[in-house]
Design a protein that fits this description.
Radius of gyration: 16 Å
Number of helices: 6
Largest sheet: 9 strands, mixed
Strand content: 25-35%
Length: 229
């Protein structure tokens, strides 16, 4: 059986490995492992050149996690805790996702990927979630996942993959959806009311989650994406 080709966006950050210390296009290998386990063939997409041109060569797309979206894209000044903004990545990924949605390419957004989707379609973000919910459970400390339950909405694509009972998943986000973009439906929330997953209204597979399924034990969301491909 031919594996569907699934593009995954990457970070570009300074990194140290073996004898080198230099800027690198990188991605946590957990994404790659999950796509392979789900039956897909991962291809990394750095934010360089014009990634939107590769949409016609892909069977599916994952927008990976990363730094914050530039608040100017939703007409806000930056919060003091907004950080790791990479304008070149915003530019590349907004164009890539717009082309993917136009083509009806199966899509899964992860953390930042959900935020890119919401902002692209006209929504806005809470720039520092602890200011809203009063706790840091969604990102307890640098480099450590929080583990909070989310509840899928019955009838959603997410519920078909995960069921309708609350499921505890790994979180690492200090931002979340504020104003929901037109055309998106909420498909999961946390107990504190945070929107944790959305999907595009209508046909096709276009979904996004605020948590990090690549860091969890299961592969169901990646299997759902691969099946849609």
């Amino acid at each position: 059986m031919t594996r569907p080709v699934i593009g995954i966006t990457t970070y570009v950050e300074p990194a140290r490995f073996t004898v080198w210390d230099l800027p690198v296009a990188l991605l946590p290998y957990m994404y790659v492992e999950k796509i392979v386990q789900a039956g897909g063939q991962p291809v990394l997409l750095p934010p360089a050149g014009d990634p939107a041109l590769v949409v016609e060569r892909l069977d599916g797309l994952v927008l990976a996690g990363g730094g914050d979206v530039d608040p100017a894209r939703y007409a806000q000044a930056p919060h003091e805790r907004t950080g790791y903004v990479r304008e070149f990545r915003d530019t590349a990924e907004f164009a890539l996702l717009a082309a993917a949605l136009e083509a009806g390419l199966p899509f899964l957004g992860v953390c930042r990927g959900l935020q890119v989707l919401n902002v692209l379609l006209g929504g806005s973000l809470h720039q520092h979630l602890p200011d809203v919910v009063g706790h840091t459970g969604h990102a307890p400390e640098p480099g450590a996942f929080g583990h909070l339950p989310v509840t899928p909405v019955p009838g959603s694509r997410l519920a078909k993959a995960l069921g309708t009972n609350a499921v505890t998943v790994p979180h690492y986000h200090h931002q979340a959806i504020d104003r929901l973009a037109p055309g998106l439906a909420v498909t999961a929330t946390a107990a504190d009311g945070t929107i944790e997953a959305v999907e595009l209204d209508g046909g096709g597979f276009a979904a996004a989650v605020q948590w990090h399924p690549e860091a969890g034990d299961g592969v169901a969301l990646f299997e759902a994406l691969t099946a849609a491909c």
